[in-house]
Amino acid sequence: MEVKTSLLDNMIGVGDMVLLEPLTEDSFLENLKNRFDHNEIYTYIGSVVISLNPYRSLPIYTPEKVEEYRNRNFYELSPHIFALADEAYRSLRDQDKDQCILITGESGAGKTEASKLVMSYVAAVCGKGQEVNKVKEQLLQSNPVLEAFGNAKTVRNDNSSRFGKYMDIEFDFKGDPLGGVISNYLLEKSRVVKQPRGERNFHIFYQLLSGSSDDTLKKLKLDRDVGKYNYLSLDSAVVSGLDDAANFRTVRNAMQIVGFMEDEMQSVLELVAAVLKLGNIEFKPESRCNGIDESRVKDKNDLKEMCELLGIEQSVLERAFSYRTVEAKMEKVSTTLNVAQAYYARDALAKNLYSRLFSWLITRINGSIKAQAKTRHKVMGVLDIYGFEIFEDNSFEQFIINYCNEKLQQIFIELTLREEQEEYIREGIEWTNIEYFNNAIICDLIENNKNGILAMLDEECLRPGTVTDETFLDKLNTVCAEHQHFESRLSKNSKFLTDHSLPHNCFRIQHYAGKVLYGVESFVDKNNDLLYRDLSQAMYKANHSLIKQLFPEGNPAKVNLKRPPTAGFQFKASVGTLMGNLQTKNPNYIRCIKPNDKKASHVFTESLVRHQLRYLGLMENVRVRRAGYAFRQPYEPCLERYKMLCKKTWPHWRGPAREGVEVLLTDLQVPAEEFSYGRSKIFIRNPRTLFFLEEKRKQCLEDLATLIQKIYRGWKCRSHFLLLKKSQIVVAAWYRRYSQQKKYQKIKSATTVVQSYARGWQARKLLRELKYQKRCEEAATTIAAYWHGTQARRELRRLKEEARRNHAVAVIWAFWQGLKVRREYRKFFRANAGKKIYNFTIQRIMQKYFVGLKNNMPSMSPVDKSWPARPYLFLDGAHAALRRIFHLWRCKKYRSQFTEEKKAVYEEKLEASELFKDKKALYPSSVSQPFKGDYLEINKNPKFQKLNSALDDKVLLADVVSKINRANGKGSARIFLLTKKSVVLADQKTGQVKASVVLSDLASVSVSTQTDGFFALRLKEGTASAVKGDFLLSSEHLIEIITKLHRVGAANADKEKINVDISDEFLVQFKHDKVCVKFIQGSPKNGNNASCKRKNNRLLEVSVPNTPSTPSTP
Ligand SMILES: Nc1ncnc2c1ncn2[C@@H]1O[C@H](COP(=O)(O)OP(=O)(O)O)[C@@H](O)[C@H]1O
Ligand SMILES: [Mg+2]
């Protein structure tokens, strides 16, 4: 809940002077002091904020404070500048009213700070966003730039604004800032060339010298030493609490943010440097022949450097300091300048250069910050203008400044009164006129077009003939003498003739803020504000873009003979515009007061403050405010605040707020003349009444507090009690439930026990009955079974008995019959019945045997060894004999199928078996090979025709054998032919007979026991064939060859049989030697063939591979 507070809460003194009682200057002062001592620097007079300069930083501008004052009503919180800013901003945003914040007060009272606080508050509460923030930043950062160039240390203020500033901040309909426009008013340019004692030139000069880098200084041809520059006062070059170097960095940074280009910043600094250089140019007199002194530049170095900086031709500027050209009616007259005139020209140039630079800066900043969008916008103007000034020597500047303040006071009076009046009219309250001092008369004295001081001055300046400050004063003395606010020694008004406080060359004006004595010296000059045309032309010629822009009148192409408007005229015009501008806006006032002259915190100099509150017209302000009604408040908050004072309105009033207030005030018996009912507000005439209400409220609040406390305590106790009671019921309920549960469980279990006993008893009884029943049924069955059994057995016995009897009858009958038959046939039967039966039985058995044998006969193959099993032991011999017979018969059948050739083949095979079986290892492999005989088909092959014809008989065997060379054991192929008579060896290729051996010459054939195919044909000694020696041959068909050879030998009855020796070692006759052929087992080499090697002349070794060689079948 939002806590509603009021200005009236926690008040130190009175927050609003309107409520001051009694209202006297002393009580006013006392209230201010009281508040100031408690760090309350802000006090209201209605909606006007009085601000006392604390001269130290107070923790009242924090972001938290901003939040506190944001969107709160003006009188809701204790007085603060933020409340005023918030009020202005909200009525701008929500009610679409343009606003202006008018900040007045004398120099050092805190106007500039106040304007910055307002701006920063508005920046903090208005919209956010990238674009908006940039605008805000630029608006805020324009301040440091302007302060550097336009502020200076004065005796009153270390950071005194030496120009007037009015800034319009523009907002869109949402209240977001769009941009701004800054207007400046009359820079105090005389400060550039001369400063009063204890004061400084504009900050920028000092900042440049102490803050810029060595490099920059070198570029600007400057020296860091302040003492080297005539225009800079030495005595207060350093100000405590002011860090020029750091400020210079801030200014450069701010310029960057505002949007200055690097080259623009450089140009600006060059101009500042040029002003410093200008101040150092000095002149000396030089006598001319015509006796007139002419000025000459003393030391040209500074002049040279300055010209280099600005790109001006040195001679042109030098000439401009020595001559002055006056153009009149198409004529040019050139006059020389004396030293004083040269100095005047120099200073005029410096002042113009600087003030034009300042104006340019403002234009440039405006270019950056001006609102981009062309939409309609609302404006909040912040006016921070120089305050009312009274110095020891007051000149044209002070006159102008004070005139401006006069005007502001005028507008203040007008607007506050008007506002007050308007409010009464708005609220429908009768308005009674109030007496107050209206300074319009002073304004008229100064600005009246006919006989105002400014008009007089202009008249003097424009008048032909000699014009001096004295002639101007004379004029004033005649024209204004009658004016009650004008005082001059020589005026017609005789009462000042003897006033010694009024020097002769001065006039005095009774301003609203006090009397100010102005010395007329240089009024005319300053008003003329003339710069010799030669100088402006010299500047225009500069090769420097910024300088050229600043002196457009120097352009020879645009010579303007018309005088430029005077300074006074310009100022009056711009103040007029400003006032016009301000009058269209809703004013918000901040009136700054300086508590002491020492810039010290905690010091409240009463006389000083009294003086200010007098001339600021604050007392009048309060009076005006109170003339009608001291206090006003809308009905709702008023009723809300005081409704507890009446039983009818407390605690709630259901009707309209106004009626509520009426009921309330009537009930309180407040006299009717003390208040008035407006349309939306209640107006209270005397603060007394308000305090009466406040006092009552305070008392009532105490009572109410007690009441609230009482009710609260009662409520608290009651609710505590109720809580306890509720808890107790809950606890009891829970307990009862628990105990009932227990009891129930107990009963339940007891019941179960009893129940189970009863049920058990019943069940057992039933069981007994059932068992008895069952036994009865069983007994009946058993008895029946026994009965049936007995009957059945009896029947069985009877049947058995019957069967036995029948059988006995049959047996007896059979015996009887048998006895009868035996008795009848005994005589035929007894002799050979046994033998017959035996034979018959044997016959039957044999029959069965043979039929069985017939059905199980084995196959007709002679090699089939199977034979049915013997059925009876006594048939053993017969069975074996039958088997042999069957086999022989089967073999005979087999043989009978043979042809003659096949028979011969088998005979040969039989013979081979007789010869080699179990004797030579080669034999088994030959069994399956059929003996083909003619392997070469010698009869058919025409190749062997010749050979065939050479033979005497039919060829029995023809084959290729290998003849072993006797010398080395190597074999060579030969055709081996066997006929009935001889063995022929022939060349395999040619078929030529190599050797022919008659079979009768053959003694024996030797072969080994092994698997080889070697054989030796051994010849009978002394035969014709034996001359060449025995043959050692090797054949793949060894078994066939030897068998055939043996058979041929055997067939020839006239010849001896050829022996076959089977041995692994035998002798062979080779021509002359007997050589032993030895067969050994060796490892298989070059296939499975046996290899033969001649070991020595006695031994030929045949190595036979130990695996039985499988002879290749052709
Ligand atoms: N609200 C404030 N809080 C703290 N110091 C302040 C405040 N207002 C002014 N000052 C001090 O007073 C000095 C002068 O204030 P300034 O605003 O420059 O005066 P003016 O513009 O009225 O001549 C400032 O430099 C600052 O030190
Ligand atoms: Mg200021």
From TrEMBL:
Question: Which InterPro entries does the UniProt entry name for this protein?
Answer: IQ_motif_EF-hand-BS (IPR000048), Kinesin_motor_dom_sf (IPR036961), Myosin_head_motor_dom-like (IPR001609), Myosin_TH1 (IPR010926), MYSc_Myo1 (IPR036072), P-loop_NTPase (IPR027417)
Q: Which residues belong to any copy of the TH1 domain?
A: 920-1106
Xref: SUPFAM superfamilies: P-loop containing nucleoside triphosphate hydrolases
One Gene Ontology cellular component term attached to this UniProt record is: cell cortex
Q: Which UniProt keywords apply?
A: Actin-binding, ATP-binding, Calmodulin-binding, Isopeptide bond, Motor protein, Myosin, Nucleotide-binding, Phosphoprotein, Repeat, Ubl conjugation
GO BP annotation list: actin filament organization; actin filament-based movement; endocytosis; intestinal epithelial cell development
- Cell location: Cytoplasm, Cell cortex
Q: Where does ATP bind?
A: G105, E106, S107, G108, A109, G110, K111, T112
Q: Which GO terms describe its molecular function?
A: actin filament binding; ATP binding; calmodulin binding; microfilament motor activity
Which Pfam families does the record associate with it? IQ, Myosin_head, Myosin_TH1
Which top-rank group of organisms is this from?
Eukaryota
- Any keyword Ubl conjugation? yes
Entry keyword annotation includes ATP-binding = yes
The Myosin motor domain covers 12-698
Chief place where the protein resides: cytoplasm
Give the residue ranges for region: Actin-binding.
Answer: 575-597
* UniProt function note: Motor protein that may participate in process critical to neuronal development and function such as cell migration, neurite outgrowth and vesicular transport.
Q: Which family does it belong to?
A: Belongs to the TRAFAC class myosin-kinesin ATPase superfamily. Myosin family.
Cross-referenced PANTHER family, in alphabetical order? MYOSIN, UNCONVENTIONAL MYOSIN-IB ISOFORM X1
Q: What is this protein called?
A: Unconventional myosin-Ib
